[in-house]
Design brief:
Elements lengths: L5 E4 L3 H12 L6 E5 L14 H4 L13 H4 L2 E5 L3 E5 L4 E4 L4 E3 L2 E4 L3 E3 L3 H4 L5 E2 L4 H7 L8 E5 L3 H12 L3 E6 L11 H13 L3 E4 L3 E7 L2 E6 L4 E4 L1 E4 L3 E3 L2 H5 L8 E3 L10 E3 L4 E3 L13 H15 L12 E6 L2 E7 L5 E5 L7 E7 L2 E8 L5 H9 L6 H5 L5 H7 L3
Parallel strand pairs: 1-2, 1-7, 2-3, 7-19, 9-16, 10-11, 10-16, 11-12, 18-20
Antiparallel strand pairs: 4-5, 5-6, 8-17, 13-14, 14-15, 21-22, 22-25, 23-24, 24-25
Helix pairs in contact: 1-9, 10-12
């Protein structure tokens, strides 16, 4: 590799961790990390929780302030990359500067999918994707005010929980039958529905917004069932769109994300994609997968760094995992949430418990509710495609750790 080094476009979780991994794995060449935001790289999970509840005490930075200087990483913030020439191996910045590279990493992330009907209302309408979004929303969440949330995915439910903690009245609009229905089994979705309703959240399910207006009472949303909701604040979260424009204009293969192989290489072998923007081929014959999780960003950062340095990759992928904190519950989810059968280990709603998902005889998924200590063992069992009797899995006297240890090597 020449002294042009490695350029990373995107200073979010995936980009910052790629830079860190390169140094950790021994790379001594030039590393340049470009971010279009002015903030140092930060984590997103606190944005819907602590950054709204206690902003002055919450720190989101991924690394300490002097990390980049100490590790000789050129961190350039507030600068957008607007052009990529893979033949010349150059990146053009918004100010006209051109940078050369040997290897390039696209960690451009994703943006909130827009709802023009709501955007047209102007003041009082928010999305939550960035630190700036959280800073703008926080003053609007005042006790006694009414908040309308459009979308009952993870972010929507975490926001509902946070707003209730702040004394805000909350209504949630969701077109699906249950909240978080697309990402969790029915059993958990029904449980979360009941928990939020017990805390006073209005859940308007199987409904969509058909009209929006500003009235003397505030912002008014008309729903598909004919009802009308009013409030001072509206936040919507209906998914994200990967930021593929730079890659697409450069001729890289794109399909709901930048397409990569298992090593996170794009259709140009000198260009990698990691994090929310990457649609990665996890195994031969399977369609590429784009995952929007903290763990996935860290995992792909390591894969890309290892491949760029010619180091061996781990023999198998990690089990997909993410978590959500809401209503005093820490819920961790791992594996295939489309599992055909679910075993309850404990009692859902009566203290810590687990849900274990089976496909045939194999354990393929696990969900912990305030029982995160068992997730590591559950992930080991999933990774090893364990076949364990359902009665044994349901028995809380059976240690998952011991079950994992008992499997053949």
């Amino acid at each position: 590799m020449s002294d042009k080094g490695i350029i990373i476009i995107g200073a979010g979780q995936a980009g910052a961790m790629t830079a860190a991994q390169l140094r950790q794995l021994g790379f001594t060449g030039r590393v340049t990390l470009l971010g279009d935001e002015t903030h140092a790289p930060y984590e997103r999970p606190p944005l819907s929780k602590d950054m709204l509840l206690q902003p002055a005490q919450t720190r989101c930075a991924i690394h300490p302030d002097d990390f980049y200087r100490q590790h000789d990483i050129q961190l350039r913030l507030g600068v957008a990359a607007v052009g990529l020439d893979t033949q010349a191996r150059t990146v053009t910045l918004a100010d006209g500067e051109s940078l050369d590279y040997d290897k390039l990493v696209l960690a451009t992330g994703a943006r909130a999918r827009r709802l023009p009907m709501l955007d047209a209302l102007g003041e009082g309408v928010y999305t939550l994707r960035t630190l700036e979004d959280a800073a703008a929303l926080q003053p609007a969440l005042q006790a006694g005010h009414r908040l309308i949330l459009v979308g009952a995915g993870v972010i929507g439910l975490e926001l509902a929980s946070t707003a209730v903690d702040l004394g805000v009245q909350v209504a949630v609009v969701e077109p699906a039958e249950l909240p978080m229905m697309r990402a969790t089994p029915r059993l958990l979705a029904e449980f979360l529905c009941a928990v939020h309703r017990e805390r006073g959240v209005e859940l308007h399910l199987r409904c969509s917004v058909v009209a929006a207006a500003r009235t003397a009472e505030g912002l008014a949303l008309t729903l598909s069932d004919g009802s009308c909701l009013t409030g001072q604040t509206v936040v919507y979260g209906i998914g994200v769109e990967p930021n593929v424009e730079l890659a697409q204009a450069a001729g890289l293969a794109v399909d709901n994300g930048i397409l990569t192989d298992r090593q996170c290489r794009t259709s140009d072998p000198d260009v990698y994609a990691v994090g929310d923007v990457a649609a990665r081929q996890t195994a031969a014959g399977l369609p590429p997968v784009r995952r929007e999780t903290w763990e996935n960003a860290n995992w792909q950062a390591e894969l890309a760094a290892r491949d760029m340095l010619g180091l061996a990759l781990p023999p198998q992928d990690i089990v997909p995992w993410y978590w959500t904190d809401q209503c005093g519950l820490n819920i961790q989810l791992a594996g295939d949430m489309g599992a055909a059968r679910w075993i309850v280990r404990g009692a859902l709603g009566a203290g810590p418990c687990m849900l274990l998902g089976l496909s045939g005889d194999e354990l393929v998924a696990a969900i912990t509710v305030n029982q995160g200590r068992d997730m590591r063992s559950a992930k080991e069992l999933i990774a090893r495609r364990a076949c364990i009797e359902p009665a044994v899995l349901a028995d809380t006297q059976q240690s998952l750790r011991n079950l994992s240890r008992a499997l053949p090597a």
